[in-house]
Amino acid sequence: MSRAPLPPCSRCGAAFAPFGFLWPDGRRFHACPDCQPRAKAAFEKARREAGRVRA
Predict the structure, then answer these.
(1) Is residue 4 predicted with pLDDT exceeding 80?
(2) C-alpha distances in angstroms, 3 versus 6, 7, 26?
(3) What gap in Å lies between CA 40 and CA 24, rounded to an integer?
(4) What is the pLDDT of residue 53?
(5) Of 17, 18, 19, 20, whose CA–CA distance to 28 is shortest?
(6) Which string of DSSP letters, residue by residue, matches 5-21?
(7) Does pTM top 0.70 for this prediction?
(8) Which of 17, 29, 33, 46 has the greatest CB tally within 10 Å of its CB?
(9) Tens-digit pLDDT profile for residues 13-47
(10) Where are the domains of the chain?
């Protein structure tokens, strides 16, 4: 059974983007290994800010 191909990196367009994030507003974001640290930091910031809005 083969898996579906990974989508390209949402930031730089690289073909290999194994890291996926689901933003608080429901958008999906995929990151390559080079973009993952910056994408994760932005994701964590958005999640914290979304938590503040709900509280």
Answers:
(1) no
(2) 9, 12, 23
(3) 13
(4) 58
(5) 20
(6) PPPPPTTT--S---EEE
(7) no
(8) 17
(9) 988 888 888 887 888 889 999 999 998 998 889 88
(10) 19-54
